[in-house]
Write a structure and sequence with these properties.
- The two termini are 34 Å apart.
- The chain contains eleven helices and 14 strands.
- The strands form three sheets. It has a six-stranded mixed β-sheet, sandwiched between helices. Strands 1, 2, 3 and 5 form a four-stranded antiparallel β-sheet that branches.
- It has two domains: 214 residues, P-loop containing nucleotide triphosphate hydrolases (Rossmann fold), CATH 3.40.50; 64 residues, Alpha-Beta Plaits, CATH 3.30.70.100.
- 38% of the residues lie in helices and 27% in strands.
- The chain is elongated and about 75 Å long.
- The structure holds adenosine-5'-triphosphate.
- The site of adenosine-5'-triphosphate has 11 residues, from β2 and α1.
Length: 307
Protein backbone atom coordinates (compact mmCIF):
# COMPACT_ATOMS: atom_id res chain seq x y z
CA UNK A 1 0.00 0.00 0.00
CA UNK A 2 1.32 3.43 -0.94
CA UNK A 3 1.96 5.97 1.81
CA UNK A 4 0.52 9.30 0.78
CA UNK A 5 1.71 11.02 3.95
CA UNK A 6 4.61 9.79 6.03
CA UNK A 7 6.16 11.84 8.80
CA UNK A 8 9.15 11.12 10.99
CA UNK A 9 9.78 13.06 14.18
CA UNK A 10 7.60 15.83 12.80
CA UNK A 11 7.82 18.74 15.23
CA UNK A 12 6.31 22.20 15.23
CA UNK A 13 7.46 24.64 17.84
CA UNK A 14 5.78 27.99 18.30
CA UNK A 15 7.41 30.58 20.55
CA UNK A 16 6.31 29.19 23.87
CA UNK A 17 4.45 26.09 22.78
CA UNK A 18 5.32 22.79 21.16
CA UNK A 19 2.24 22.15 19.06
CA UNK A 20 3.51 18.86 17.62
CA UNK A 21 6.40 16.76 18.86
CA UNK A 22 8.18 13.81 17.22
CA UNK A 23 5.05 12.69 15.40
CA UNK A 24 5.39 9.60 13.19
CA UNK A 25 2.18 9.50 11.21
CA UNK A 26 1.46 7.36 8.18
CA UNK A 27 -1.56 7.82 5.95
CA UNK A 28 -1.99 5.21 3.25
CA UNK A 29 -3.77 5.68 -0.04
CA UNK A 30 -7.48 4.91 0.21
CA UNK A 31 -7.75 5.48 3.94
CA UNK A 32 -10.05 7.73 5.89
CA UNK A 33 -7.69 8.78 8.64
CA UNK A 34 -9.38 10.16 11.75
CA UNK A 35 -7.35 12.59 13.85
CA UNK A 36 -8.51 12.54 17.43
CA UNK A 37 -7.42 14.81 20.26
CA UNK A 38 -8.59 17.41 22.74
CA UNK A 39 -8.45 21.16 22.01
CA UNK A 40 -4.87 22.14 21.39
CA UNK A 41 -3.67 18.56 20.84
CA UNK A 42 -2.03 19.48 17.53
CA UNK A 43 -4.57 18.31 14.94
CA UNK A 44 -4.77 21.59 13.03
CA UNK A 45 -1.01 21.98 13.28
CA UNK A 46 -0.50 18.62 11.63
CA UNK A 47 -2.99 19.39 8.85
CA UNK A 48 -1.39 22.79 8.21
CA UNK A 49 2.05 21.21 7.91
CA UNK A 50 0.77 18.70 5.39
CA UNK A 51 -1.12 21.40 3.50
CA UNK A 52 2.02 23.54 3.30
CA UNK A 53 0.36 26.36 5.26
CA UNK A 54 3.12 26.15 7.83
CA UNK A 55 6.56 24.57 8.04
CA UNK A 56 8.04 22.08 10.46
CA UNK A 57 10.63 23.12 13.03
CA UNK A 58 12.17 19.66 12.89
CA UNK A 59 11.52 16.27 11.40
CA UNK A 60 10.55 14.95 8.01
CA UNK A 61 7.40 15.11 5.98
CA UNK A 62 6.96 12.96 2.92
CA UNK A 63 4.01 13.78 0.71
CA UNK A 64 3.07 11.68 -2.34
CA UNK A 65 6.43 9.98 -2.05
CA UNK A 66 8.61 13.09 -2.06
CA UNK A 67 10.58 14.97 0.61
CA UNK A 68 11.69 17.69 -1.72
CA UNK A 69 9.97 21.00 -0.94
CA UNK A 70 9.56 22.31 -4.49
CA UNK A 71 8.23 18.98 -5.64
CA UNK A 72 5.87 18.88 -2.67
CA UNK A 73 4.51 22.27 -3.70
CA UNK A 74 3.70 20.81 -7.11
CA UNK A 75 2.19 17.70 -5.56
CA UNK A 76 -0.08 19.80 -3.35
CA UNK A 77 -2.19 20.45 -6.46
CA UNK A 78 -3.43 16.92 -5.80
CA UNK A 79 -4.73 17.99 -2.40
CA UNK A 80 -7.99 19.67 -1.35
CA UNK A 81 -8.01 21.48 1.96
CA UNK A 82 -10.49 22.82 4.49
CA UNK A 83 -8.63 24.15 7.49
CA UNK A 84 -10.42 26.45 9.88
CA UNK A 85 -13.13 28.48 8.13
CA UNK A 86 -13.74 27.43 4.55
CA UNK A 87 -12.84 30.62 2.70
CA UNK A 88 -15.32 32.00 0.22
CA UNK A 89 -16.66 35.38 -0.84
CA UNK A 90 -19.99 36.35 0.78
CA UNK A 91 -20.98 38.70 -2.07
CA UNK A 92 -20.50 36.04 -4.74
CA UNK A 93 -22.94 33.24 -5.48
CA UNK A 94 -22.04 29.60 -4.91
CA UNK A 95 -21.37 29.20 -8.62
CA UNK A 96 -19.26 32.38 -8.82
CA UNK A 97 -17.22 31.28 -5.82
CA UNK A 98 -16.56 27.96 -7.49
CA UNK A 99 -15.64 29.73 -10.72
CA UNK A 100 -13.23 32.00 -8.85
CA UNK A 101 -11.43 29.06 -7.27
CA UNK A 102 -11.45 27.07 -10.52
CA UNK A 103 -9.57 29.87 -12.25
CA UNK A 104 -7.29 30.39 -9.27
CA UNK A 105 -6.37 26.71 -9.28
CA UNK A 106 -5.89 26.76 -13.03
CA UNK A 107 -8.46 24.06 -13.75
CA UNK A 108 -9.73 24.20 -17.34
CA UNK A 109 -13.40 23.84 -18.34
CA UNK A 110 -16.57 24.96 -16.57
CA UNK A 111 -17.98 21.45 -16.52
CA UNK A 112 -15.89 20.69 -13.47
CA UNK A 113 -18.05 23.14 -11.51
CA UNK A 114 -21.35 21.59 -12.48
CA UNK A 115 -20.08 18.13 -11.63
CA UNK A 116 -18.68 19.18 -8.30
CA UNK A 117 -21.74 21.16 -7.29
CA UNK A 118 -23.94 18.19 -8.13
CA UNK A 119 -21.66 15.98 -6.08
CA UNK A 120 -21.94 18.16 -2.97
CA UNK A 121 -25.67 18.77 -3.52
CA UNK A 122 -25.50 22.51 -4.26
CA UNK A 123 -26.31 22.60 -7.98
CA UNK A 124 -29.96 23.53 -7.46
CA UNK A 125 -29.07 26.44 -5.17
CA UNK A 126 -26.02 27.59 -7.14
CA UNK A 127 -27.36 31.16 -7.52
CA UNK A 128 -27.52 31.74 -3.77
CA UNK A 129 -25.04 34.25 -2.39
CA UNK A 130 -22.34 33.13 0.02
CA UNK A 131 -23.65 35.36 2.81
CA UNK A 132 -27.12 33.83 2.69
CA UNK A 133 -26.02 30.21 3.06
CA UNK A 134 -26.88 28.00 6.00
CA UNK A 135 -23.99 26.47 7.93
CA UNK A 136 -24.53 23.11 6.21
CA UNK A 137 -24.44 24.80 2.79
CA UNK A 138 -21.27 26.67 3.77
CA UNK A 139 -19.60 23.42 4.77
CA UNK A 140 -20.68 21.83 1.51
CA UNK A 141 -19.41 24.81 -0.47
CA UNK A 142 -16.10 24.53 1.38
CA UNK A 143 -15.98 20.89 0.42
CA UNK A 144 -16.93 21.77 -3.16
CA UNK A 145 -14.05 24.27 -3.36
CA UNK A 146 -11.68 21.67 -1.90
CA UNK A 147 -12.85 19.20 -4.54
CA UNK A 148 -12.14 21.41 -7.57
CA UNK A 149 -9.41 19.78 -9.59
CA UNK A 150 -10.27 16.23 -8.48
CA UNK A 151 -7.83 15.95 -5.57
CA UNK A 152 -6.49 12.58 -4.46
CA UNK A 153 -6.14 13.73 -0.89
CA UNK A 154 -8.54 15.76 1.24
CA UNK A 155 -7.43 17.44 4.46
CA UNK A 156 -10.47 18.35 6.52
CA UNK A 157 -10.29 20.12 9.85
CA UNK A 158 -13.57 19.69 11.73
CA UNK A 159 -15.76 19.61 8.62
CA UNK A 160 -18.89 18.68 10.58
CA UNK A 161 -18.47 21.21 13.35
CA UNK A 162 -21.71 23.01 14.08
CA UNK A 163 -23.85 21.01 11.67
CA UNK A 164 -27.27 19.73 12.62
CA UNK A 165 -27.84 15.96 12.70
CA UNK A 166 -29.19 15.84 9.14
CA UNK A 167 -26.22 17.88 7.89
CA UNK A 168 -23.80 15.57 9.68
CA UNK A 169 -25.32 12.52 8.01
CA UNK A 170 -25.19 14.23 4.60
CA UNK A 171 -21.52 15.14 4.93
CA UNK A 172 -20.69 11.70 6.29
CA UNK A 173 -22.36 10.00 3.33
CA UNK A 174 -20.68 12.37 0.92
CA UNK A 175 -17.23 11.73 2.38
CA UNK A 176 -17.83 8.00 2.27
CA UNK A 177 -18.82 8.25 -1.38
CA UNK A 178 -15.79 10.36 -2.24
CA UNK A 179 -13.62 7.76 -0.59
CA UNK A 180 -15.25 4.69 -2.07
CA UNK A 181 -16.25 5.88 -5.53
CA UNK A 182 -13.60 8.47 -6.28
CA UNK A 183 -10.90 6.74 -4.22
CA UNK A 184 -9.99 9.96 -2.44
CA UNK A 185 -7.82 9.56 0.64
CA UNK A 186 -9.18 11.64 3.50
CA UNK A 187 -7.59 12.97 6.68
CA UNK A 188 -10.28 14.33 8.95
CA UNK A 189 -10.24 15.77 12.43
CA UNK A 190 -13.33 15.86 14.56
CA UNK A 191 -14.43 16.18 18.15
CA UNK A 192 -17.43 14.01 17.46
CA UNK A 193 -15.98 10.59 18.05
CA UNK A 194 -19.20 8.72 17.33
CA UNK A 195 -19.04 10.29 13.85
CA UNK A 196 -15.44 9.38 13.20
CA UNK A 197 -16.20 5.88 14.39
CA UNK A 198 -18.65 5.47 11.53
CA UNK A 199 -16.25 6.84 8.96
CA UNK A 200 -12.57 6.34 9.71
CA UNK A 201 -10.54 3.31 8.69
CA UNK A 202 -7.52 4.37 10.78
CA UNK A 203 -7.17 6.56 13.84
CA UNK A 204 -4.36 8.76 15.10
CA UNK A 205 -4.71 9.80 18.73
CA UNK A 206 -2.95 13.05 19.59
CA UNK A 207 -2.40 14.34 23.10
CA UNK A 208 -0.53 17.58 23.79
CA UNK A 209 1.36 17.34 20.53
CA UNK A 210 2.28 13.68 20.95
CA UNK A 211 0.93 10.84 18.87
CA UNK A 212 -0.25 8.40 21.54
CA UNK A 213 -1.23 5.72 19.08
CA UNK A 214 -2.01 5.08 15.45
CA UNK A 215 -4.26 2.10 14.88
CA UNK A 216 -6.56 0.72 12.18
CA UNK A 217 -10.28 0.65 12.91
CA UNK A 218 -10.25 -3.13 12.63
CA UNK A 219 -7.36 -3.58 15.06
CA UNK A 220 -9.01 -1.16 17.45
CA UNK A 221 -12.22 -3.16 17.32
CA UNK A 222 -10.34 -6.36 18.11
CA UNK A 223 -8.28 -4.77 20.86
CA UNK A 224 -11.17 -2.90 22.34
CA UNK A 225 -13.58 -5.82 22.61
CA UNK A 226 -16.08 -6.02 25.45
CA UNK A 227 -15.92 -4.83 28.97
CA UNK A 228 -17.78 -5.46 32.16
CA UNK A 229 -19.02 -2.42 34.03
CA UNK A 230 -19.60 -2.82 37.77
CA UNK A 231 -20.72 -0.47 40.48
CA UNK A 232 -19.89 -1.80 43.92
CA UNK A 233 -20.19 -0.59 47.50
CA UNK A 234 -16.42 -0.37 48.02
CA UNK A 235 -14.54 0.47 44.83
CA UNK A 236 -11.12 0.61 46.42
CA UNK A 237 -11.30 -2.84 48.03
CA UNK A 238 -12.81 -4.24 44.86
CA UNK A 239 -9.92 -3.04 42.69
CA UNK A 240 -7.40 -4.47 45.16
CA UNK A 241 -9.26 -7.76 44.95
CA UNK A 242 -9.23 -7.57 41.17
CA UNK A 243 -5.48 -7.11 41.02
CA UNK A 244 -4.32 -9.26 43.93
CA UNK A 245 -6.77 -12.16 43.95
CA UNK A 246 -7.92 -12.28 40.37
CA UNK A 247 -4.69 -11.05 38.75
CA UNK A 248 -6.66 -8.74 36.48
CA UNK A 249 -5.05 -5.35 36.02
CA UNK A 250 -6.84 -4.23 32.85
CA UNK A 251 -9.48 -2.07 34.45
CA UNK A 252 -10.39 1.56 34.73
CA UNK A 253 -12.19 3.42 37.52
CA UNK A 254 -14.47 6.15 36.22
CA UNK A 255 -15.06 9.40 38.07
CA UNK A 256 -18.32 8.17 39.58
CA UNK A 257 -16.59 5.06 40.95
CA UNK A 258 -17.81 2.66 38.27
CA UNK A 259 -15.23 -0.01 37.53
CA UNK A 260 -14.68 -0.98 33.92
CA UNK A 261 -13.07 -4.40 33.52
CA UNK A 262 -11.66 -4.96 30.04
CA UNK A 263 -11.64 -8.38 28.40
CA UNK A 264 -13.30 -9.93 31.44
CA UNK A 265 -13.38 -13.44 29.92
CA UNK A 266 -16.30 -15.85 29.69
CA UNK A 267 -17.45 -16.42 33.25
CA UNK A 268 -18.23 -12.93 34.41
CA UNK A 269 -20.10 -14.22 37.43
CA UNK A 270 -16.75 -14.91 39.06
CA UNK A 271 -16.38 -11.16 39.58
CA UNK A 272 -19.66 -10.92 41.45
CA UNK A 273 -18.87 -14.09 43.38
CA UNK A 274 -15.46 -12.76 44.44
CA UNK A 275 -17.04 -9.45 45.51
CA UNK A 276 -19.74 -11.28 47.47
CA UNK A 277 -17.22 -13.50 49.25
CA UNK A 278 -15.35 -10.40 50.39
CA UNK A 279 -18.45 -8.65 51.64
CA UNK A 280 -18.55 -6.10 48.80
CA UNK A 281 -22.06 -5.36 47.59
CA UNK A 282 -22.90 -5.08 43.87
CA UNK A 283 -25.04 -2.14 42.87
CA UNK A 284 -25.03 -2.82 39.13
CA UNK A 285 -23.28 -5.01 36.61
CA UNK A 286 -23.45 -4.97 32.78
CA UNK A 287 -21.49 -6.16 29.75
CA UNK A 288 -20.78 -3.41 27.23
CA UNK A 289 -19.20 -3.09 23.80
CA UNK A 290 -16.22 -0.75 23.80
CA UNK A 291 -16.69 2.38 21.66
CA UNK A 292 -14.12 4.67 20.12
CA UNK A 293 -14.77 7.13 22.94
CA UNK A 294 -14.14 4.43 25.56
CA UNK A 295 -10.92 3.47 23.83
CA UNK A 296 -9.78 7.09 23.69
CA UNK A 297 -10.57 7.74 27.36
CA UNK A 298 -8.77 4.56 28.32
CA UNK A 299 -5.73 5.53 26.25
CA UNK A 300 -5.62 8.89 28.00
CA UNK A 301 -5.84 7.21 31.41
CA UNK A 302 -3.08 4.76 30.51
CA UNK A 303 -1.00 7.71 29.35
CA UNK A 304 -1.47 9.43 32.71
CA UNK A 305 -0.51 6.24 34.59
CA UNK A 306 2.75 6.00 32.65
CA UNK A 307 3.50 9.73 32.70
P1 LIG B 1 -8.59 22.39 18.35
O1 LIG B 1 -9.34 21.13 18.53
O2 LIG B 1 -8.86 23.37 19.45
O3 LIG B 1 -8.68 22.97 16.99
P2 LIG B 1 -5.95 21.35 17.70
O4 LIG B 1 -5.74 19.95 18.13
O5 LIG B 1 -6.29 21.60 16.29
O6 LIG B 1 -7.04 22.01 18.64
P3 LIG B 1 -3.74 23.13 17.28
O7 LIG B 1 -4.55 24.24 16.70
O8 LIG B 1 -2.90 22.33 16.37
O9 LIG B 1 -4.65 22.16 18.14
O10 LIG B 1 -2.82 23.78 18.42
C1 LIG B 1 -1.83 23.07 19.12
C2 LIG B 1 -1.16 24.03 20.08
O11 LIG B 1 -0.37 24.98 19.35
C3 LIG B 1 -2.11 24.85 20.94
O12 LIG B 1 -1.57 24.93 22.24
C4 LIG B 1 -2.14 26.19 20.25
O13 LIG B 1 -2.37 27.21 21.19
C5 LIG B 1 -0.73 26.30 19.67
N1 LIG B 1 -0.70 27.11 18.44
C6 LIG B 1 -1.34 26.86 17.29
N2 LIG B 1 -1.07 27.80 16.36
C7 LIG B 1 -0.23 28.69 16.95
C8 LIG B 1 0.41 29.89 16.52
N3 LIG B 1 0.26 30.37 15.27
N4 LIG B 1 1.21 30.52 17.41
C9 LIG B 1 1.38 30.06 18.66
N5 LIG B 1 0.81 28.93 19.13
C10 LIG B 1 0.00 28.25 18.31
Amino acid sequence: MENIIETKNLTKQYKDCTALEHADIIVQRGEIYGLIGANGAGKTTFLKLVAGQSFPTKGELMLFGTHEQKEQERQRKRTGVIIEQPGFYPQLSIEQNMEYYRIQKGIPGKRAIEETLKLVGLWDVRKKKGKTLSLGMKQRLGLGIALIGEPELLLLDEPINGLDPAGIIEIRNLLRRLNQEKHITIVISSHILSELEQLATTYGFLEKGHLMEQISARALQEKCGNYLEMKVTDTERFTVLLEKQMSHDRYLVLEDGTVRIFNPGQEVERYSAAAGKNGIGILSMAMKQCTLEDYYMNLKEEGKKHA
